[in-house]
């Protein structure tokens, strides 16, 4: 039966991969691609690009663009490659219990990631989840095989997550501490394991610092760390109760069955591998709660490890008494016959062909100058679609700001005040020929073009120096995730100066 379940899950994943291979670049992926494109054209992060991410966040896109290519197919291939790497790591982690938990959890992780929609491929938290799984696989291999060099891969992967988002940096130190305690309890040498692990931890951190030094943007980076980064983290936060419920919302029925299994299996987690996995589960949930926005992709590190823990317990239940066997089969059956096909069906039905916004905006920009607008166009947007178009047309933006949240949020924070002053200073000095404004304000509104009302000074400048020369609203709703979404609108303002 486990073989049948495995085959069915693999068929679902293959069907999902084929059905979604043509998903376009969208959301954070297109924005990070655009930042990488600006870097290729001489712009320096933090100094010439007002980015609040750590360098690892856009280095992923930069690497994929220069190895696989800059198109949507390359990015989709990268995302599917991540799911395969995550599944292989899960199989390695669960090997003492059997191969099936890795296949079960790896397939469900891929399909749940898929059902989250077209905006999510290659998301930073998904990359972090896969890196953590590889780190665990290397960590366990090092001690199972008594081969310390595996710890270098462990440290490398954990530290790479820290260059994307810093939440998991303490995680590496905690697991090294667990390894030290475990080896000393057994009177076994530990120094080489720690040295190899620490070496891996230092490499990405040194690489990130070297990058900042070479690009001469160290001071600007720490200004962002003190200003824009904490300000962004404070926006659109959800209550703790909401976060805890939504952390497992795609898996709630499955988690209920697992909760029953846990009564008979909790003693199995008292070994050192079980304890370290539960530590990762705690860090994954902590990451989701600390980020506080409740986005589906923020829970990937937690979901990945939670799926693996549940799958291991379902497998263990099959060797127990009659009731525990029934619980194990119930969890396996629900995951195989409900979660997997439902997630596959949802992902395959998203309307990836609907690119009306991009088509309309590209048409208007070509009419207004096309390639001549490079360096003369300004997007007032974040993930509404304007930067997707600039990337597709390979147009350089005039200004350094790629997040309108730092311009149109209430002017109570010093970061917003400073951003507005810098933006106006640049636009006064060299006004762009064309300004594109979307009706989106990331991350929490307001709807429509009301964001302009939050900054009357800029609205007055726009009215005095520009005229409305084009606008567009697609006719069809977007179906790029589980719910239909009204399409974004845009307005293009052309300079009154000759």
Automatic annotation (TrEMBL):
The keyword Membrane applies. It comes from the Bacteria. Keywords: Membrane, Transmembrane, Transmembrane helix. The chain crosses the membrane at residues 98-114, 126-144, 150-178, 190-212, 240-263, 275-291, 297-315, 327-345. This is Glycosyltransferase RgtA/B/C/D-like domain-containing protein. It comes from Terriglobus albidus. The lineage of its organism: Bacteria, Pseudomonadati, Acidobacteriota, Terriglobia, Terriglobales.
């Amino acid at each position: 039966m486990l073989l049948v379940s495995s085959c069915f899950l693999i068929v679902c994943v293959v069907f999902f991969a084929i059905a979604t291979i043509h998903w376009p670049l969208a959301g954070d992926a297109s924005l990070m691609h655009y930042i990488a494109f600006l870097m290729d054209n001489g712009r320096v992060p933090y100094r010439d690009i007002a980015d609040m991410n750590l360098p690892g966040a856009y280095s992923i896109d930069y690497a994929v663009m220069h190895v696989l290519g800059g198109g949507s197919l390359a990015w989709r291939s990268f995302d599917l490659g991540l799911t395969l790497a995550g599944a292989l790591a899960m199989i390695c982690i669960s090997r003492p219990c059997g191969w099936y938990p890795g296949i079960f959890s790896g397939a469900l992780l891929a399909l749940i990631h898929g059902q989250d929609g077209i905006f999510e491929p290659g998301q930073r938290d998904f990359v972090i989840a896969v890196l953590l799984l590889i780190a665990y696989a290397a960590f366990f291999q090092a001690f199972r095989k008594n081969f310390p060099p595996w710890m270098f891969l462990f440290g490398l992967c954990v530290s790479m997550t820290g260059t994307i988002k810093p939440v998991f940096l303490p995680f590496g130190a905690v697991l090294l501490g667990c390894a030290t305690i475990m080896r000393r309890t057994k009177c076994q040498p530990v120094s080489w394991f720690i040295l190899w692990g620490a070496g891996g931890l230092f490499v990405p951190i040194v690489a990130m610092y070297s990058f900042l030094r070479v690009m001469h943007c160290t001071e600007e980076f720490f200004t962002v760390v003190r200003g824009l980064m904490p300000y962004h983290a404070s926006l659109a936060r959800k209550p703790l109760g909401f976060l805890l419920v939504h952390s497992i919302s795609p898996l709630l029925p499955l988690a209920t069955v697992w909760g029953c299994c846990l009564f008979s299996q909790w003693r199995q987690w008292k070994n050192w591998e079980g304890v370290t996995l539960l530590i990762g589960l705690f860090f994954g949930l902590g990451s989701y709660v600390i980020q506080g926005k409740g986005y589906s992709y923020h829970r990937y590190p937690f979901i990945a490890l939670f799926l693996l823990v549940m799958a291991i317990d379902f497998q263990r239940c099959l060797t127990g008494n009659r009731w525990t066997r029934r619980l194990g089969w119930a969890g396996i059956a629900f995951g195989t016959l409900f979660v997997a096909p439902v997630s596959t069906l949802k992902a395959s039905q998203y309307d990836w062909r609907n690119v009306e916004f991009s088509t309309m905006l590209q048409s208007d920009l070509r009419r207004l100058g096309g390639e001549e607008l490079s360096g003369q166009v300004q997007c007032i947007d974040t993930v509404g679609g304007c930067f997707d178009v600039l990337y597709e047309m390979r147009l350089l933006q005039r200004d350094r700001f790629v997040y309108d949240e730092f311009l149109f949020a209430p002017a109570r924070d010093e970061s917003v005040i400073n951003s507005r002053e810098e933006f106006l200073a640049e636009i006064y000095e060299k006004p762009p020929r064309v300004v594109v404004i979307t009706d989106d304000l990331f991350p929490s509104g307001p709807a429509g073009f009301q964001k302009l009302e939050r900054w009357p000074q800029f609205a007055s400048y726009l009215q005095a120096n520009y005229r409305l020369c084009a606008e567009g609203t697609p006719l069809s709703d977007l179906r790029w995730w589980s719910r239909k979404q009204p399409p974004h609108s845009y307005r293009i303002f052309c300079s009154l100066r000759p």
